[in-house]
């Protein structure tokens, strides 16, 4: 696919953004929820910073990057004053240091080892970091995240690490052919979220349930998502798809 021009990508966004907001609102209302309960995070991998800033100018208030190198390349130019920046991709422990002070939340904490490293560096730098614990809800070998049966124990350990605030859960279910299957995954994650919330553990707030992407965010909202991560439906198809 040819690289799209900035103008083309901006036009894509302008056309798609109101429609996505409307679809979010409709899905929320249909589920008996308020649209304000749901945050739209724009997944901005491969999107040039000029286009992201254009989107922020149009009201976008939260973006997520999933590669450290790409985040760093865009970071200085990014309109951070008007937009919350989060990290949503798989993260190697040796790259954590680049994210501190730059992102408000690391959504993809899928192991105690990674959480421990974030905590160690937070203490060293004297900063705090919000984290979501990623659940590998489909038990997929090629995906990050904690297996469901280990989740509670993992949250209980991570919450004790200085500098970290456990703020919720994140999940990327397997690609499903039908909505019933995807909803089973989303509902299972939602149930863990609720089960953990009722335990009222110190240093754990289940404020954010991040699930749902371009292909399935209405279903995720129906199943309780408080944040959806939408990329290609906002900015157009990526020339080089990557997760
Ligand atoms: C790319 C990405 C998304 C968005 O995917 P789309 O299908 O383009 O909406 C959401 N979450 C993560 C972690 C991603 O890497």
UniProtKB/TrEMBL annotation:
Which cofactors does the annotated protein need, by name? pyridoxal 5'-phosphate
**Alanine racemase N-terminal domain spans which residues?**
49-237
Task: Give UniProt keywords alphabetically.
Answer: Pyridoxal phosphate
Query: Quick one: signal sequence residues?
Result: none
Q: One GO molecular function term? A: pyridoxal phosphate binding
Q: Is Magnesium tagged as a keyword? A: no
Protein's UniProt keywords contain rRNA processing: no
Where N6-(pyridoxal phosphate)lysine occurs, the residues are 45
Say what the protein does: Pyridoxal 5'-phosphate (PLP)-binding protein, which is involved in PLP homeostasis.
Sequence similarity? Belongs to the pyridoxal phosphate-binding protein YggS/PROSC family.
Name of protein: Pyridoxal phosphate homeostasis protein
Source organism: Candidatus Acutalibacter pullicola
